[in-house]
Amino acid sequence: MNEAVTVADVTQVYVTEQQATLAIQQMNFVIRRGEFVSLIGPSGCGKTTMLSIIAGLIAPTVGTVKVAGELVSGPSPRVGYMLQQDYLFPWRTILDNASIGLELQGSLTGEKKQAVLHLLDEMGLLRFKDYYPSQLSGGMRQRVALVRTLATDPEILLLDEPFSALDYRTKLQLEDLVIDTLRAKQKTALLVTHDISEAIAMSDRIFVLAPNPGRIHKEFVIPEEIRAPLPFEAREKPGFHTLFRDIWQEFGGDADE
Ligand SMILES: Nc1ncnc2c1ncn2[C@@H]1O[C@H](COP(=O)(O)OP(=O)(O)OP(=O)(O)O)[C@@H](O)[C@H]1O
Fold it and tell me: 123 in helix, strand or coil?
């Protein structure tokens, strides 16, 4: 099974007392195992809705989603979710925050706790394991959130603007750390971002979405000449800015020129 995520004919309509909103219309795509794919597009084009459907948090009005060949019918340990905010519990230590997913699953064995400590070590956080979130910087807290997401060993990670609240330097460092970690662990990831450069630097493929109704407008495969071991290096490749401009135009970037 090479397909990590299969989205088939997904349509999502939100109905409120005032109106019905066609948030997503007939979306179809496949993410292969180990791939890093980004969803970019203007506000309201259905990016978060798509992640919520893949995560099993909402059932699509029409269509199906499979994760590793299994129909998604609710939240599953196969899928990990990382958000813009770290949502760490202030009264729990870093180790206890990082372990909470395992604890909630009732699977926090001694062996798993060692694995969490190992992940904290990989993220440069081991010496802070007994600290509380308020004692850490925003970038460090987001690294704890990444450890918490990886601790349950999900097959696919859904990343909803996880770098957008960070300062620029921290954001670039964390992008490198995430890619390095996910590639080493051969994880599949779907990133939602408003940052075209970030999407190009991190992804294998990019879907540009369009709004009203939310749909896939265009797919970009990142060419070999732009790929690099780490996103920071990809930003320096010749061809990076040409691709940026191509995507910007599809984004409607030149609409007011
Ligand atoms: N719970 C809801 N009830 C009603 N309408 C909703 C709900 N959630 C989202 N929508 C609508 O569905 C559309 C898609 O929203 P969604 O949040 O998925 O877009 P997005 O691309 O993630 O936007 P942003 O970039 O601003 O986060 C929007 O028109 C939004 O107003």
Answer: coil
Maximum Cα–Cα distance across the chain: 60
Write down the ipTM of this complex.
0.96
Q: Report pTM.
A: 0.92
Which protein residue's CA is at the shortest distance from atom 29 of ligand 1? 44
Distance between CA atoms of residues 149 and 102, nearest Å = 10
23 CA from centroid of ligand 1 (Å): 6
Q: Decide: 68 and 155 in contact? Cβ < 8 Å.
A: yes
Contact 96, 144 (CB under 8 A): no
Rounded to the nearest whole angstrom, what is the distance from the C-alpha of residue 48 to the centroid of ligand 1?
7
So what's the pLDDT on residue 257? 42
> Residue 222: which residues within 8 A CB-CB, separation 6 or more?
200, 203, 204, 205, 206, 243
> Dihedral, CA atoms, 29, 238, 168, 36, nearest 10 degrees?
20
All structural domains of the chain with their residue ranges: 82-153
